[in-house]
Amino acid sequence: MAHIAFIGLGQMGTPMATNLLHKGHHLRVYDINPTASEKLNALGAYVATSPKDAVLGCEFIITMLPNGKLVNDVIFGNNGAIESINRNSIVIDMSTIHPLESDDIRNRLRSENIEFMDVPVGRTSDHAISGTLLILAGGTKEQIEKASPILLCMGNKIVNTGGPGNGIRVKLINNFMSIALNALSAEATVLCESLNLPLEKALEVMEGTPANKGHFTTTWPNKVLKGDLTPSFMIDLAHKDLSLALDVANQLNVPLFMGAASREIYSQARATGRGKQDWTAILEHLRNCSGLKDD
Amino acid sequence: MAHIAFIGLGQMGTPMATNLLHKGHHLRVYDINPTASEKLNALGAYVATSPKDAVLGCEFIITMLPNGKLVNDVIFGNNGAIESINRNSIVIDMSTIHPLESDDIRNRLRSENIEFMDVPVGRTSDHAISGTLLILAGGTKEQIEKASPILLCMGNKIVNTGGPGNGIRVKLINNFMSIALNALSAEATVLCESLNLPLEKALEVMEGTPANKGHFTTTWPNKVLKGDLTPSFMIDLAHKDLSLALDVANQLNVPLFMGAASREIYSQARATGRGKQDWTAILEHLRNCSGLKDD
Amino acid sequence: MAHIAFIGLGQMGTPMATNLLHKGHHLRVYDINPTASEKLNALGAYVATSPKDAVLGCEFIITMLPNGKLVNDVIFGNNGAIESINRNSIVIDMSTIHPLESDDIRNRLRSENIEFMDVPVGRTSDHAISGTLLILAGGTKEQIEKASPILLCMGNKIVNTGGPGNGIRVKLINNFMSIALNALSAEATVLCESLNLPLEKALEVMEGTPANKGHFTTTWPNKVLKGDLTPSFMIDLAHKDLSLALDVANQLNVPLFMGAASREIYSQARATGRGKQDWTAILEHLRNCSGLKDD
Amino acid sequence: MAHIAFIGLGQMGTPMATNLLHKGHHLRVYDINPTASEKLNALGAYVATSPKDAVLGCEFIITMLPNGKLVNDVIFGNNGAIESINRNSIVIDMSTIHPLESDDIRNRLRSENIEFMDVPVGRTSDHAISGTLLILAGGTKEQIEKASPILLCMGNKIVNTGGPGNGIRVKLINNFMSIALNALSAEATVLCESLNLPLEKALEVMEGTPANKGHFTTTWPNKVLKGDLTPSFMIDLAHKDLSLALDVANQLNVPLFMGAASREIYSQARATGRGKQDWTAILEHLRNCSGLKDD
């Protein structure tokens, strides 16, 4: 059984720490809110007086905090972990923070010969309770192997995201996409309902199309992802159909802010000469606009 | 074998008419561009001099045209179909046009005791050639039964969209969603690439989450679609994660127009009191903003 | 006194026609809604039965209609003006319609040797009543001279917009700018109010800055409009200040859809290498994105 | 002559401090970059080794730094100003920082009985050199009186923004409006140019309309600002004209991201029942969407 410091006992941290205790690990817990520790204390955790106190003698230091500034503070601030940490321990940050802040923390720890992993989690607080979180592990192969027994107390699936820093990056991209997509799906649905079309009817069709299956694994692999921009469905036609939908929405007073923005992206792609390319060339267009590559 | 008028011989219409001929039907074809008819003439089609001429003696009149104005013109304009159409025939409009224009045409034909179906198609021109289009049939059950043998010459799957007008509506919603989603997916991807994260790594995770699986069949059915807005994942947290992604993008000069618009939608939802509701409540929020229902 | 056909007797057309009558001109009026003509009939106007009837013997044909399709119909449709118009008359379209539709009408009339002017109006229906509209005259110098006595019965200022087609173009640009600016001003104001800052205090400062004076005549003339992009205020700094405002707004749940879109425009400008240029270089950036010119 | 600490010697800070020296004040300067102080040292400033050292014996402490975190650090961090500051001195923060961070600093200083003013500046680095900055003074009447002789060494106009915290708030709003307006003006201009209309012609008209004069002092004072929403120009009509412009832009491939967002705002206003109100009611609409007030 491992000796683990657990810092950050919020809605996610508390059940995660509880599961570690249930699996028999020795925990030293810390939270700025002293009452957060009580329940864990009752389960056998030592309640530390500071991050510095929490990490004493621990092999793993887990942080689960609201933002990167707090992660930084508990490690490097007054009475921070850095003041008494074992040099052979691993700091595992499971928070969702800014990737560049996460990189900074890794680099700063490395200069002190301390290992760091970025291991945010997926799914919900219910999964935290049942120990079935999705673990997005960022770190070296060796680090992930070493940490897996600990991580699997909190989740039931570990994804090796391919290297240090990738865990927090994958989390960011996944959440961006799923959260923005939620709003876009709502726009499509209110347009559907404004046309008196039952959503189930639309879903019957969309189930088999990129509208619900997404593009990453349907239209993109054989086109833009392998550099083929010959049109299966031209940007000009996509622009036309999108404009038709916006006209209808506009007539029905259905505001579609994301839809409207997407139309302007297609207009911009046309303006820069991509009208006759496949619609997946929108990715190439955005790469150009992001300075990722030149035309 | 049926007698069919086919009006509109473009990139989609020509292969569709060809497949009808191959299956042995008698075709009278018309297009404003006279050369478009030549190939079909060689295959045995009668080349009509006007829509009025095309529909003579036909049971089915199929239109496949770029917009609703043209559909209207070939039916009701000078030398239009209406001047010689059989009263027991069905007009099947397979174009992608404005749903309210489609409704107008149906109503106007109904007043002349002529039947009308809106039957746009899904998939690409390659599928038109191979006769494997997706047929989105809008009409009564009887109409769809009667037209099915004809429609199955052009496609390999018919979806009964649930009533007259629903075919064109489903097409509109599906295309809106898939075309806008294409651009949103590109935004997520350029952010991914700007963070030096390989897209495949992100996809490994997104494959199992709403980011790629969509929300319609994952997060929504047990929440907003049955009126339960208690949070699995709060709008406040979704807003926080989205803001984090936008901050990162902004720092890396990755313009995310759709992502930015989506964040303002979440802000608006919070401003109107939905911060502690489930993120699927964005749908309820947009319903309120669209005048579909009151708070 | 002139013989004038006036077609379109809505909220604007009725008072405009009334003023022409008051100045002693002979009017033949037409509207699809027959009751619209009654008031003018009482004032001495002849009520025509069709556009064809209205234009009989007239030197000037004025149209004031909701959209280009209707303007087209009253001129070229059944019983349209074209059927009995004098070849030496001028058609003056005072409607706000699509510029390219306006061009089409001009070209079509020109091929019939009939003159056409696009002369939309500015200001409100109150000004239509008092005869103080702003007249945006599109046409040749000769046409404007010839029409001025008529136009000045309806407005008190004529702007020669520089040529045929420019009248309707100026109207479009002016309305785009003022209507969108209205919404942007509202965004700034709700942010102001959310910060508990009285708008009057903000106005005291903004009165002397581009925030209220605009950019066209302040920051642009010595910079981007003469091709000088050396920075007085760098795009990078504008982007930073704008991001600060959006962060504040976001924290206060003030949705700023236009502000958010503008930030992404600045991000895109930075991504394409303009960060160290003057902020007025945003115009150059948008020119590139619109295909107006290459980098 | 006053004893002044000046912390932050960047592109703005250096000329501002230089002007204070030229007027005969005694300066103690500090910057994390040691070379930044050299020029001021040559002009007679004492170069401090820390903020703590800089404030020794000073009546005024001026900070001119890139962000609120740095302002906080130089005051409250290690070797910060707070460690040796005179209790009767005033801290004058002239940076552009987050208003809520500025409030925090004021409150924290107040609890130590130290006065604080937020006094950001307007105009450019050229004005900093010539001592003609616009001074946006946030503070009590007494504070502004006391600080004015110092401030007028750096600028030629002081605006009393009406109270503590208002200086930084006015700056934020002014910059939001002017920076976003710059991008909106560019959108209008590329649409203008795409229509082959010279900008000067459009400006001739816009000079006299809200398009260039803004709304704050033209259309708003007699309408929404005094609660009168009876229409001079209806939201429905503004929406129509805006849609016309967007259609034209779309046809010409001119992407108008801000214009597109503004149209959706008008759609939303119509959807929530404001179609027949005056266009200035957009402000009321956004107030509702921001949670500032209920319908």
Automatic annotation (TrEMBL), chains A, B, C, D:
3-hydroxyisobutyrate dehydrogenase-like NAD-binding domain segment(s): 165-285
UniProt KW keywords: NAD, Oxidoreductase
Signal peptide bounds: none
Active-site residues from the entry: 171
Molecular-function annotations in GO: NAD binding; NADP binding; oxidoreductase activity, acting on the CH-OH group of donors, NAD or NADP as acceptor
Segments forming domain 6-phosphogluconate dehydrogenase NADP-binding: 4-162
Any one GO BP annotation for this protein: organic acid catabolic process
The protein's name: 4-hydroxybutyrate dehydrogenase/sulfolactaldehyde 3-reductase
Species the sequence originates in: Lonepinella koalarum
